[in-house]
Amino acid sequence: MTRWTTLLMDDARLRALPGPPAGGPAEDTAGPGPTPLELYRRWERQQWSAEALDLSGDRQAFADERHPAVMRDMLRSAVTTFIIGEYTGLDMLGPILTGSPAEEYTLFLGTQTADETRHTRAMFRMGTEVLGLSADPRTMLAQAWRLATLAHHELALLEGEAARDVRAQPMDYGRWLRAVVLFHLITEGVLALVGQRVLVHALREIRAFEGIRTAFVAMGRDESRHVGFGLHALRRGIQEGHAEVIYGALEEAAPLALRLDTEFDGIAVDFRQMSVEVLRRHLGRIGASPVFVSHLLDHYTPRITPRTDREQE
Ligand SMILES: [Fe+2]
Ligand SMILES: [Fe+2]
């Protein structure tokens, strides 16, 4: 799958721009789920403003000792993780946009770039205005990086390597699919989705941090479009015979993503179980083979072994 792009034209071919593909445009039959064009239309309808968020009450609530320390720790951990995550997503999206294998994918990825810009701005504001981190983004990122867990560091470095690979050879479809596994399926589809869901739920329970909750609800809606795009692209990749590269990337990244839950202390949420369930659902949507899914995920699911009669006596 290769889109129309001047990247493919050298000087000698400048006068001979490619015409329309023989037999008309390739049919995008990846379904189920929305197509990139439908996701684009949804993006036009779902705009919000990071600048308009009111974080003044959140700042007071964060300083308020009445909120349990575990809650404030969770909030600090979530905000710093998303500061790195959103900024990295924005920073690394360029190669993925340039390496896009289809024209309608390029259109969608443009909307995602705008979204990640807005998410990064929202996170920078939360970092400064609520947590009291430096207002200088470079200092804030260094502070947040120091607070992030080892597994987050490893995953961010893996993403950086995948983005560099795509940048070196933007028309290599396999490299592009690997990057989409890391960014769209694992980071956005599992980590961000589960993290946002748990945080929004917890904030709703304690009826505080309205500004942060509003931002995470809006970001979650954006992320679900990004994940929808990733699932579409990967499903189509598998249909076009690239299952091996997709499975290889999943084997690299899934153990890292599923290790993160062990690194949150004092929070009574089974991140791993939620993550495994979400990932299993995504793998069903991209049409991964059941044998591969079982190989990747079954050992994370605690098996209930029936007790023998002798043990019950
Ligand atoms: Fe984002
Ligand atoms: Fe995203």
Task: Give an account of the 3D structure.
The protein has helices at residues 36-45, 56-63, 69-98, 103-129, 137-147, 150-168, 173-206, 210-239, 243-259, 271-286, 290-297, 309-312. With 313 residues, the chain is mainly α. It has a single domain, classed as Ribonucleotide Reductase, subunit A (Orthogonal Bundle). Helix 6 runs antiparallel to helix 7 (173-206) and helix 8 packs parallel to helix 10. Residues 303-313 have low confidence and may be disordered. One fe (ii) ion is lined by residues 89, 115-116, 188, 223, 226.
Reconstruct the topology from this structure.
Blueprint: H1 36-45, H2 56-63, H3 69-98, H4 103-129, H5 137-147, H6 150-168, H7 173-206, H8 210-239, H9 243-259, H10 271-286, H11 290-297, H12 309-312
The structure holds fe (ii) ion (2 copies).
Residues 89, 115-116, 188, 223, 226 line the site of one fe (ii) ion.
